[in-house]
Amino acid sequence: MTAGQDDRLRAALEQFVEPNLGLTLAAAGAIESVEAIATGAVVKIVLGFPVGGYLPELTAALTAHVAAAGLPRELRVELCSRIPSFVADQRMRPLPEVANVIAIASGKGGVGKSTVAANLALALAAQGARTGLLDADIYGPSQPRMMGIAGERPTTTDGKTLTPPRGHGIPVMSIGFLVDSDQPMAWRGPMVTQALAQMLSDTCWGPLDYLVVDMPPGTGDIQLTLTQRVPVSGAIIVTTPQEIALLDARKGLQMFRKVGVPVLGIVENMGVHRCPACGHESHIFDAGGGVALARQYDTTLLGQLPLEAGIREQVDAGRPTVVADPASPVARIFKVMARCAAGRLAASALQGAMTMPAISIEDE
Q1: Where are the alpha helices (DSSP H) in the chain?
Q2: What CATH homologous superfamily does 101-351 map to?
Q3: Which CATH code for domain 3-81?
Q4: pLDDT of 67 over the 60 cut
Q5: Which residues, 6 or more positions from 359, have their beta carbon under 8 angstroms from its beta carbon?
Q6: Would you list the DSSP string of 244-263?
Q7: Which residue of 69, 134, 293, 294 is most buried, as measured by CB atoms within 10 A?
């Protein structure tokens, strides 16, 4: 290529909108170099989210983009990630060695939030991110069972800090490791938030790109206090398509926005059920609710998950879908959702922290 063609190619690449970031490569500062070779060009790109398995898809998209710009060139893309640290409220200190905290939340229980949290954490790890999982659902801890490490206990070497058990290669911390499985947690709100603060501060997570937090369901005092005491980077709202679940999901989404935490997107769970005998599809919990919610609040629909017995059976057996059947369509949905959420978080880091608003309670 001539120098002019080289400049035109770089200019065209800079205008490519990276779908996970929602930003052009120029705005993201993602193009490290463009080098001409005999057959085309070598493009080095650095993205702020885990990129394991993403290279073929991105190469195809970039090749089509430059061809549409009138520059049909063979591109050899070299791709790596450099994950930035982000805390929504800059007045809060990041956790030691933890770059980002992602809260997985729901307005109500029973929508599959913990199953989504476990699979998203494993999906981030499968794509190359250093990931941990915190079970903040003090009243109903389920991650020890879901991650296949029920009955294990954290260890300590100094009597002050805890080394968490590892499930499928990632560190997992839960109150479920510290109490009997049938013991009820009859605690008031301040005790719950203090327990969570101790699990966060006293756990040796090691270097993490993402700490995924399985939040308690609801939008009450506990959830609000957690968002104010934990240096959250972004939140993901899990819902089913039915209107009753969506009513509560709206409250959860609005709660995070009121405390200045970016909502990375919506996960619609238990959408369509396909009969294993005849293949007939039924929308048992209605259809399109997640799409409408994302549109109404100008956020991203990260993905839609089917209502399948296998998803439940796998987490019950301690092997979530991403590790039990990594090549399955459902595992791919989780990986795409994890990449998209991480991309939205990277975009938040590039665009800067949000200003914390004053919180007022209003009658509606």
Answers
A1: 3-14, 25-28, 55-68, 113-126, 143-146, 189-201, 221-229, 243-258, 289-296, 309-316, 321-324, 329-351
A2: P-loop containing nucleotide triphosphate hydrolases (3.40.50.300)
A3: 3.30.300.130
A4: yes
A5: 258, 259
A6: HHHHHHHHHHHHHHHTT--E
A7: 134
Q: What share of the chain is helix, strand, coil (3-state, %, to 5)?
A: 35, 20, 45
What is the DSSP code string of 162-206?
A: BBPPEETTEEEEEGGGTS-TT------HHHHHHHHHHHHHTB---
- List every span in the chain annotated with CATH 3.40.50.300: 101-351
C-alpha span between 238 and 236 (Å, rounded): 7
The two three-digit tokens of residue 4, written as one number: 């002019």
Tokens 């009969």 appear where?
A: 275
Share of the chain above pLDDT 90, in %: 60
Q: pLDDT band at 285, cuts 50/70/90?
A: low
Give the residue-averaged pLDDT of 190-205.
Answer: 84
